[in-house]
Write a structure and sequence with these properties.
about 140 residues, about 45% strand, eight-stranded antiparallel β-barrel, single chain, alpha+beta
Length: about 140
């Protein structure tokens, strides 16, 4: 589908906002990113900072509802100690990237998603929207 084709590439998180738009968090100085490979239906992502986390795995896509989910995820970094001491905006970003995302809009430059949480969830994850900006392939993923 066109939506899935448009998702292919590398994306850097620009901002997250709650449903009302009152709680907006900008990611101007951090490199929270994801690389989506729709030909292999795979992803790679990193959330830097004290609670650094790197993930790889498979992608699932529901064409009818436009929901992108992560499957068979392997994680590195983080750990319980950094989870307890971590948090803040990078912790929220990391949690957001782990829940299924409904694709609201995607084009050659921007990707706008909404967290899909069907069960009770941590308040800082539920009802969040994310705006991602496409970056040149290899901008972040090639550094590792």
């Amino acid at each position: 589908s066109q939506t899935l084709d448009n998702l292919d590439g590398e994306w850097r998180l620009q901002l997250m906002a709650d449903r009302k738009g009152d709680g907006v968090t900008f990611f101007n100085t951090t490199d929270c990113w994801q690389a989506l490979d729709v030909s292999d239906m795979a992803f790679r992502s990193e959330t830097p900072g004290f609670r650094f986390s790197s993930q790889t795995g498979d992608l699932g896509f529901n064409k009818k509802e436009r929901i992108l989910s992560r499957e068979d995820v392997s994680s590195s970094g983080g750990g319980l100690f950094s989870y307890i001491l971590g948090g803040g905006k990078m912790g929220t970003a990391g949690e957001m990237m782990n829940v299924p995302q409904q694709i609201l809009s995607v084009d050659s430059t921007l990707l706008v998603t909404r967290a899909v949480v069907k069960a009770p969830a941590v308040d800082n994850v539920k009802d969040y929207f994310s705006v991602w900006r496409r970056v040149e392939r290899g901008t972040h993923a090639a550094k590792k």
